[in-house]
Specification:
The complex is a heterodimer. By secondary structure, chain A is mainly α. Chain A has 13 helices and no strands. The N and C termini of chain A lie close together (about 10 Å). In chain A, about 35% of the residues are buried. Chain B starts with a helix and ends in a 7-residue tail after the last helix. In chain B, helix 4 packs across helix 6 and helix 4 crosses helix 14. Chain B contains 14 helices and no strands. Classes of the chains: A mainly alpha, B mainly alpha. At the A-B interface, helix 1, helix 6, helix 7, helix 8 and helix 11 of A face helix 7, helix 8, helix 12, helix 13 and helix 14 of B.
Chain lengths: ~325, ~300
């Protein structure tokens, strides 16, 4: 087991290296020189000052040198300063990242808690009305544009009935620690973001459960006279849950991507909103840092997924 | 998908032996009413999109840019065909803009899917057939791309190249191929070990012919299925990018950018929110249903139940 974990960790290194290459390329090969963008519109900038700025940002070095010195800096968690806000990027990310993770984890939980039982129920009463509903939802949940669902939610529950706030994370003036207020703000974005996950898990669970129910060890369990409930929930469910672990890692990527749009709809102050604003205003230090950090987290989550799978299913450890 | 089980009769042996793959598939597809309904719906959308000019001139008497600033936020009404779906914040006809939006969304969806399937097939075939260093290198590229949230990358690249429909198709087409490539790779890996490939190699057929004639032919039906779902995903992504203001730009309507404005005056024109989103939803749903139906028809063994 130890060797399996070690090997999987080592496999993550080239991917992380690739992520740093892409983040760096996004910054260096973007059109326009960063310094000319910085002094754009400013009057009385002399050539010496531009040269000094280029030197300050390290732009007078060769590309490999720039890449290595950037690597050195991010190893110390120094992502430089935002062009727009002149604040350390690390601080800005540290205030936005927890909000995105909070939203993603709540959505993931909703997707698991609703999706898995739906799939099992559909498989148990195969061909029934419930089964048909779950199957249709399994397709529809993927097809619905989440941002549109978000607006419908706002239109109906916030504008029409006033049950939930229109957006944001907190009501202005309320305490940061007002849990009820935070939860009310979380409901809309979390539901909108979890639709695809619910669809995904219910569909996966249904297929897997049906697949497992057709296998010999289930017949053996039934033959020795176990109650159908025991067979389904103890024997079948344990095995059907395995592929859910695999789907978890990929879903986190989907959630982080999806939250970009949802954060925009619900004015949620997370990474998605930050990277959107940074990309539009060409604030590259933030863009690079956000790409690198989200990439880093996803690589970690893929590794964690594989290790979890290895724990659950000894066959994959090899 | 749902009604398939109830209506499809047991598959008889005579059909399996006498008819071709496609004839068999068509036989099964005909019985699958949900898939047929979805396909008919899609065709209707395509025809409506193609007829956008004719309909706008003769039925609605408005172009997608015609404004009517004195009568903005016109409520949906049956009296005037142009306002069947209401008017927007500068008095443009919502239904005409939806029609042209269908054109844009479908063109972007199919165009980008074509590019990314071509890339996916070429890369996947080469990975699976040649294996070795090329396979390792591409695996590295795919894993790395997968490690970055897709929309982040699309967003940044879209900002680089500036908004234009052609750039959008190229971007969406060239960043979405990894999934397809891995899929084709897997199929190729197993096909290349089959006897007919060995036989071809023994009689001296060159690699390119084996790849493109012998293997591709067997992969293509499967890729065909993936493509319907691919188009749906691209339409969803395009609508999200356009919604964020980085895809199709006003005054050219796309279902995504129609929602950008609608969202800003939720309470003044709620009808502006319903229609474009529903159009995206129904189109993508139909594409997914057709993809599912085709998969079941082409390979009943893959059928979910």
């Amino acid at each position: 087991m130890g060797r399996f974990i070690l090997r999987r960790l080592l496999q993550g290194i080239p991917t992380l290296f690739g992520v740093t290459l892409i983040s760096f390329a996004l910054w260096r090969f973007s059109p326009g020189d960063p310094v000319s963008r910085l002094v754009f519109g400013a009057q009385n900038v002399t050539a010496e000052e531009i040269a000094a700025l280029r030197h300050f940002y390290g732009l007078d070095q060769s590309l490999p040198e720039q890449y290595l010195s950037w690597l050195g800096r991010i190893a110390h968690l120094d992502f430089g300063q935002s062009f727009l806000y002149h604040r350390p990027v690390t601080d800005m990310i540290m205030s936005a990242l927890p909000n995105t993770l909070q939203l993603a984890l709540v959505s993931l939980t909703i997707a698991l808690v609703i999706g898995i039982p739906l799939g099992v129920i559909a498989a148990r009463s195969r061909g029934s009305f419930i089964d048909q509903v779950v199957r249709v939802f399994g397709v529809a949940g993927h097809a619905i544009p989440s941002f549109w669902f978000g607006y419908l939610f706002i239109l109906v529950f916030a504008v029409q009935f006033g049950l939930f706030p229109v957006g944001g994370m907190l009501t202005i003036g309320k305490s940061e620690l007002d849990v009820a207020d935070r939860l009310r703000h979380l409901v809309g974005p979390a539901i909108a973001l979890s639709l695809a996950g619910i669809a995904n898990y219910s569909r996966l669970m249904r297929t897997e459960t049906l697949d497992i129910l057709g296998q010999d060890f289930i017949r053996a369990a039934q033959a020795k006279g176990l109650r159908p409930r025991t067979v389904l929930y103890v024997h079948a469910l344990r095995n059907a849950l395995l592929p859910i672990i695999t789907a978890l890692g990929g879903l986190l990527a989907v959630l982080v991507s999806g939250s970009l749009v949802i954060e925009q709809v619900f004015a949620w102050p997370g990474m998605g909103r930050m990277i959107y604003e940074a990309a539009v205003s060409k604030d590259y230090p933030i863009v690079m840092a956000a790409v690198f950090i989200s990439g880093f987290l996803l690589v970690i989550s893929y590794i964690a997924r594989d290790i979890a799978y290895g724990v659950a299913d000894p066959r994959v450890r090899r | 998908m749902a009604t398939a089980e109830a209506t499809a009769p047991a598959f008889t042996l005579t059909q399996a032996t006498n008819a071709s793959l496609w004839a068999n598939a068509w036989y099964r597809l005909k019985k699958d009413r949900l898939t047929i309904a979805a396909a008919v719906m899609l065709l209707t959308f395509v025809v409506l999109a193609l007829l956008a000019d004719v309909l706008a001139q003769n039925l609605f008497h408005k172009s997608y840019t015609d404004q009517d600033l004195l009568n903005n936020y016109e409520k949906p009404t049956l009296a005037d065909p142009a306002y069947w779906f209401g008017g927007d914040e500068i008095g443009r006809s919502q239904i005409v803009r939806l029609l042209y939006g269908a054109r844009v969304s479908l063109a972007v969806g199919f165009g980008a899917a074509f590019i990314n399937l071509t890339l996916g097939i070429l890369v996947g075939l080469s990975m699976g057939y040649f294996r070795g260093w090329f396979d390792d290198l591409m695996q590295f590229v795919v894993t790395t791309l997968n490690a970055i949230p897709g929309l982040y990358l699309l967003l940044i690249v879209a900002v680089f190249f500036g908004p234009s429909p052609v750039a959008l198709v190229l971007i969406l087409g060239s960043l979405n191929w990894p999934g397809n490539a891995l899929y084709v790779r897997g199929q190729t890996l197993s096909l290349r070990e089959r006897d007919f490939v060995t036989a071809a190699r023994v009689i001296g057929v060159n690699s390119a012919t084996i790849m493109f004639r012998h293997i591709l032919r067997n992969v293509l039906p499967l890729v065909f299925i993936v493509s319907a779902i691919d188009v749906g995903q691209i339409i969803l992504t395009e609508s999200a990018l356009s919604f964020l203001g980085l895809g199709i730009q006003q005054p050219l309507p796309s279902w995504g950018n129609m929602l950008t404005h609608a969202a800003q005056d939720l309470s003044r024109g709620p009808w502006l929110v319903w229609a474009p989103g529903a159009a995206i939803f129904v189109t993508v749903l139909c594409l997914y249903l057709v993809g599912d139906g085709l998969r079941d028809a082409l390979d009943p063994r893959l059928k979910e139940s």
